[in-house]
Amino acid sequence: MSDISEQERAFQLFLNKYGRNFGTKEEYIFRLEIFTKNYDIIKNFNSNGEGQVLAVNKFADMTEVEFKRYLGY
Questions:
Q1: Considering its fold, how many domains does the chain have in total?
Q2: b/e map of 55-73 (b: 16 or more CB within 10 Å)?
Q3: Per-residue pLDDT of the chain (73 residues; tens, 9 = 90+)
Q4: 10-17 contacts, C-beta under 8 A, 24 or more apart
Q5: Could you give phi then psi for residue 68, rounded to 5 degrees?
Q6: Distance of CA 69 to the CA centre of its chain
Q7: Is residue 11 part of a domain?
Q8: Residue 50 domain boundaries
Q9: What is the CATH number of the domain that holds 31?
Q10: Is 1 a member of any domain?
Q11: pTM recorded for the entire structure
């Protein structure tokens, strides 16, 4: 049995898929916390059963501010 959460397993898959690599443990933990919040939002949204589906993508470890900056806002 693994000691890591579902969210951290998903985060590790995300890191591999998008080639993310963090220089420090602190940055890893910071990004994991952001990813976890976003991952939980995605899971909750998808559990409503209304047909629309969200998925983890290359933005899943960004804060809202970082994402808006990326979009040019």
A1: 1
A2: ebeeebbbeeeeeeeeeee
A3: 568 999 999 999 999 999 999 999 999 999 999 999 999 999 999 998 788 899 999 999 999 999 999 999 9
A4: 10/35, 10/39, 10/56, 11/35, 11/36, 11/39, 11/61, 14/56, 14/60, 14/61
A5: -65, -40
A6: 17
A7: yes
A8: 6-71
A9: 1.10.287.2250
A10: no
A11: 0.89
